[in-house]
Give the backbone structure.
Amino acid sequence: EAQVTQNPRYLITVTGKKLTVTCSQNMNHEYMSWYRQDPGLGLRQIYYSMNVEVTDKGDVPEGYKVSRKEKRNFPLILESPSPNQTSLYFCASSPGQGNTGELFFGEGSRLTVL
Amino acid sequence: DAKTTQPPSMDCAEGRAANLPCNHSTISGNEYVYWYRQIHSQGPQYIIHGLKNNETNEMASLIITEDRKSSTLILPHATLRDTAVYYCIVRGLSSNTGKLIFGQGTTLQVKP
């Protein structure tokens, strides 16, 4: 089944404790992206990757890192989480060159930073 | 990428057509209009997309104006399960960046 898988789905952590949210897609998509969603603010893009080893900042990259060492995986890294990073996170992927094609979203990861 | 503007909320009676507008006045020539919806806090779900011709699939119809500066998503017979947040975005080959702006979308409330 074609899907985007995020882990963990739910996480409660404490300020400063490094964490990684994994994202994996099995559709051989070139484009992958991370979003965060907060009440009243819609979906805001954190980082995106147009292909392996190619990543760039979205609108809200502060406090986050990403890597794209292989096509299927695009982990989101919070080196030192803070309470303002408490949010619902979505990973998405799409086929095609560059910024095109239907986006497939993961089910979301709800992160709470105490 | 072009930005889009949508009304924050709309109501629709069950069984009636829901018409959701989107303004994308700065859209480029080969940028597509995409519509997604998000039910509760699930991952957004693709609905439909188009370039300049009207499109229809099993979920909805998409009407794009001739100047391509706006579009309307039509759910022909809305049900309670269509209550969701609907996002209109534009993306395409004219962009050399992967940035995507979703905005806040339109919250559609289908009422019995």
The beta strands of chain B are 9-13, 18-23, 31-38, 45-50, 55-56, 61-64, 70-75, 84-92, 106-111. Chain B has a mean pLDDT of 91. DSSP finds no helices and nine strands in chain B.
